[in-house]
Write a structure and sequence with these properties.
- The structure is a single chain.
- By secondary structure, this protein is an all-alpha fold.
- It has 13 helices and no strands.
- Helix 1 packs antiparallel against helix 10, helix 3 runs antiparallel to helix 7 and helix 7 packs across helix 10.
- It is globular, with a radius of gyration of 18 Å.
Amino acid sequence: MTLSMVSWGVAWANAKIVSNYFDFHDLVFLRFLFGALSLLPFILYTKNNISFKLEYVKYIVPASVMFLLYNMSFFMGTHYGDAGKGAVFATTTNPIITFILMAIITRKISKSDLVGIVAGFIGGILIMDVFRSGFANMFTQENIYFPICSVLWGIVTIMVSYAQRKVPAIQFIFYCYLFTAIISAPFTDISYYEVSHLDTSFYLNFFMVAIASMAFGTSVYMYATNIIGPVKSSVFIFSVPFIALISAYLILGEDIKLSTILGGIVCISSIFIVNKNKGN
C-alpha cells in the first residue's frame, strides 16, 4: 500500500505533463487500455482463471462508469489547475468523504478511525497552508475538478469494496479496467500525427500514469479495500498529499514549505492510528 501511494502521489505531476500530448478522453482510454493489458502477465503468472458471469455486470458497469468520470476529472484538473495543491485537496478530503459515507451505510463509527481521520485532515490543512490561502481557491473554475475527484473516489472506494465480495478481486480489477477502456473508446480521436510526435518525456510520464499508478497502485488499493475495508484503505491516501507536493516540486518546480513537512508527518501518523489494530 505504501508503494501504491507513492505511485499515486507522483502521478498527479505526471498527469499534468501527459495532458499536453493528448485530449482527456484519449488519455483515459490509453490509461485503462494499458492498465488492463499490463495485468494480463500477472494473471497468467499467478494462474488465475478468468471467468465471467452475467451477475458480474451489475458490479463492473457502475464501477467502470465512476472510473471514467473520476479519470476525466483527474486529467482535466491537472491540466487546467494546480496539480500539486489540487492533489493535496483531493487526497486530504477523500478519506473524510469515504468515512462519512461508510458511517451512513453501516451506522458505525470507530474511535480510532475518527481520531485518525481528524489527524489526517489536520495534516492536510498544514500541507495546504489553509491559514494563509484558504479553501476557496480549490473551487475556482480551474480547480473545481479536484473536489469532484474527491467525491467520486470516495464513492468508487466503497463500490469496489462491496463488489469484490461478489466478484473475485483480480478479475474485478481487470474487467473494470477493460470495460472503462471500451466505454471511453468512442470518445477518442487519436491521430497518427499525435503518435508520431511522442517523445521520451511522454513515454516516461505515461508509464507512471498508466502502469505504475494505475496497473500497480490502483490495483493494490482496490485489492486492499476488500481485505482491510474502505476506511482503513482510504486513510493511506493521507500520505499522498505529502508525496504529491514533493513530486510537484521536483518535476514541476512548484514551491514546498515547512508546513508541508509538518503536515506530512501528521498525515503519516494518522495512517498508523487507524491501522494500529492487530491484523492490519
